[in-house]
Amino acid sequence: MSASPLKILIVDDTPANIELLDTLLKVEGFDTVTAENGEDARTLAVEARPDLILLDVVMPGESGFETCAKLKSDPDTVDIPIIFLSALDDVKSKVNGFKAGGVDYVSKPVHGEEVLARVRVHLRIRESNRLLAREHQSRLEEFRNAQQSILVKPEDCPEANFSVCYLPLEGASGDFYDVVEIDHDVHGYFVADISGHGVSAAFLTSAIKALLRQYSGPLFSPEDTMRGVDRVMRQMLGEEQYLTACFALLNRRTRKLSVVSAGHPPMVIVRASGKVELVEMKSDPLGIFSSLVLQRQDLRLGPGDRFYLYSDGLIELKPGGSRKLGLAALSEACLAKHAEPLGSAPNQILDMVRKKHESAEAQDDLLLLAVEFKG
Asked: For the chain, how long is the longest CA-to-CA vector?
């Protein structure tokens, strides 16, 4: 832990409550700052940079939930853990607290030992996350110096039931895909396109893979996965570099497909019935904005349904061509080749799209990942 005292911001509109918590924490060696309303608390959070915030819910002006939401939308305070302290101990209030971004919820009247225990737990978690981030950044510096070919093959993970067509424009590529096994019936499918192509972009692919594996699993939602990749990549990308990405989490037990996009072209779904669907979302690319906007869609798959993730080179085969027309051509090809074996479908789709555009030579890296739900 840090050699200097850890700082706690106490926010409560009742002076007696502030005095109680202030004394409790100072006796244990913590530094404290206090505020009696949400607006002052947000100002102090930016100025004092506390390591943790203890936040009342019912206060004059904005509620603690509103204060928390605003703190989480501010890049300067988004990473500060917030513990709610409130007399509202019903389930709905607690859920609202977690939805607003709180990490814990303690019912009033508070017990000193409980507050201290929870404060220490979340400070340890935050410190562990900081150490992990520093370790990742150190590793990513090494990844910049060498390109590694670490693409998973369909035979490496047969339970994921996918196939891929991957054609770098040069010997190295800024396009990247990965398939992550969460458990036997749950897999994550990830496709990214780093701005530019060639060696300079390809250096980052192994870094993205490491981050994807770190931030995938039962503890992370698809949004958490994307934000974890974004948080570190913002420190690593060069000027004017960014990456678009799409992450799809498929749970075969529940038939649920959760899709999160980060400025990436729409996913194409071809139903067994022959219907084509585009999963379109407005969202930010990764590696640019400190306050990242992501969107998520949850869908249900049936036996025989397929979905396709790809890089934008596949819908921009014709120089100066319309992306809308390119997407229409790709969708048409995916539908036309739906009856083909999954293993050969991506290459056949690419051939059909090339003929449609009368383009034999690609202008960018080409990547098409196909996944089938067997049921």
From this structure: 76
The secondary structure of 349-366 as a DSSP string is: HHHHHHHHHT--S-SS-E
Q: Are 190 and 150 in contact (CB under 8 A)?
A: no
Number of H helices, E strands in the chain: 10, 15
Q: Which of 252, 247, 201, 243 is closest to 224 using CA atoms?
A: 247
Instruction: Please tell me the predicted confidence (pLDDT) of residue 144.
Output: 41
User: What are the beta bridge partners of residue 166?
Assistant: 367
6-15, 118-127, 191-200, range with the lowest pLDDT = 191-200
- Least reliable range by pLDDT among 172-181, 231-240, 314-323: 314-323
Task: Tally Cβ neighbours within 10 Å of residue 170.
Answer: 12
For the sheet with 366-372, list strands across it.
162-167, 366-372, 306-310, 267-270, 276-279
**Which of 90, 101, 11, 92 shows the shortest CA–CA distance to 57?**
11
Query: What residue type is 43 in one-letter code?
Result: T
Encode pLDDT of 307-345 as tens digits.
999 998 888 876 666 788 889 999 999 999 999 999 999
Question: What are 340's two structure tokens?
Answer: 């083909």
Domains of the chain: 7-137 (3.40.50.2300), 154-372 (3.60.40.10)
Instruction: Quote the Cα angle for 320-323-326, to 5°.
Output: 100
